[in-house]
What we know:
By secondary structure, this protein is α+β, with helices and mostly antiparallel strands. The protein is built from eight helices and eleven strands. Pfam families: Brix.
Amino acid sequence: AGDGSAPQASAAEDGGQPAPERVLFPPTFSVSEIKNKQRRHFMFLRWKQQQRKEKLAAKKKRRKEREALGDKAPPKAIPKTIENQRVYDETTVDPNDEEVAFDEATDEFAPYFNRQTVPKILITTSDRPRGRTVRFCEQLSTVIPNSHVYYRRGLALKRIIPQCIARDFTDLIVINEDRKIPNGLVLSHLPDGPTAHFRLSSVRLRKEIKRKGKEPTEHAPEVILNNFTTRLGHSIGRMFASLFPHDPQFIGRQVATFHNQRDYIFFRFHRYIFKSEKKVGIQELGPRFTLKLRSLQKGTFDSKFGEYEWIHKRREMDTSRRKFHL
Length: 326
């Protein structure tokens, strides 16, 4: 029949569901022109659903064409991302550069990489920490070997640092909080610095991670540092590396990862499991968190007279989404 009832009847006779009506928008249609807020939101969702279906159909079509062509299929196109369109940085490190090698041999971390010092870490907090910050510090101490947690009670950092140096601590980590939530991390390399200040976000404790593994063991983990390519990023990567012992204990199968992506440093702690000779699975142990570098200061912590090597100035530095500093 011309009224369109026949296709519906045939669908009902076949016992199947009637095909959903395809949304047809006019070529010049703009969702923003709809005045009613609820109607505008509803139409936007329908438009997004139609876009998703078209994208999936095009993907299936391309896959069938590639299967039909076999070995003659053209190589897959590399998708454009902010990461691979990054603006070139003139401070990008060349591993074979003599100047970089000289700086590594004479910087503050050289005694660690020359095996003259053994990492010994003090983890402390802002004054009178709340429960979430306390638990985060305790879990962080199980990730970093030879680390000790000390809770401050009104003691200034300028008084803590000389005591740390006298007791042979090589690094000091301070976890700051705001409204009961950890929001800052200060990492100071002892005795001569440097000191880095990070914004701390997306903290997830072990009980908040789904499908987590058993508690971590006391074995020294392996350390993975990804995408620290500039001179500044190289310094930050060496600072993270100096927190862990030189020789990881592979029998523990634990890995600590610092992954830099668009100047955000994502930390993950995993245990890998050999399922067979060819398959390896990983279990996240936690905690997990994200760091964003705010400043790098020469020497130990000095908020008043400290000399800063690098400070993140948002209005001046964040003019391009494709410009990164680490």
